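Bench log. Compound arrived from synthesis this morning; before running ITC I wanted a structural hypothesis for how S-adenosylmethionine sits in the protein. Inputs:
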Amino acid sequence: MLQRILDYAHFLLEDSVQQGDVVLDGTAGNGHDTLFLSQLVGENGEVLSFDIQEQAILSTEQKINENNVKNITLIQDSHDKLKNYIPEPSTRLGGAIFNLGYLPGSDKSIVTKPDTTLTAIQNTLDLLKPQGLLVLVVYHGHHGGQEEKEALLKYLSKLEQKEFSVLRYGFVNQANNPPFILAIEKK
Ligand code: SAM
């Protein structure tokens, strides 16, 4: 059966992330992916979870407390500043996810932007372990979403094939700008 977008994003990470890894959620939002990553890496791993929006940080914090997990570092800053928060220079990421767009049920004018998204992706790819995976869930129906989508496809289609494999997964017959996945594996 064909998997839905968010299920497939998690399936890809389940397959590549190991217990004990340091991993990244570039867009915490309501914390669903952060909590999912927390379970994947286990108590010896760590999740770095970014969001610029206070409401997202509070919502994710609430989920962390409800689930009593101790392996998440929540950071209220833009994901392009990732390198400022890496625990040690030798740290490598076992995997990462970015859910692009706006926070559902919140201020729709706070959206991810092409420049910061591309810088964050570049930094994430630098820090990824070999065989590590960066999964992007691209929502593009909002104001500015089309520009971000185009910038992403332009940048990722030029990544060196010897160093990265880039997959696109999405449904082509759904209405209203359906989201799709871009997954980048470091070789
Ligand atoms: N993954 C989330 C979840 O499981 O609920 C949904 C994320 S939502 C689609 C996108 C989030 O990106 C919003 O919460 C927004 O505040 C955040 N965001 C926008 N620009 C950002 C930036 N430069 N750095 C970090 N987060 C950003």
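What the model suggests: DSSP finds five helices and seven strands in the chain. The domain at 27-86+94-162 is CATH 3.40.50.150 (Rossmann fold).
ITC booked for Thursday regardless.
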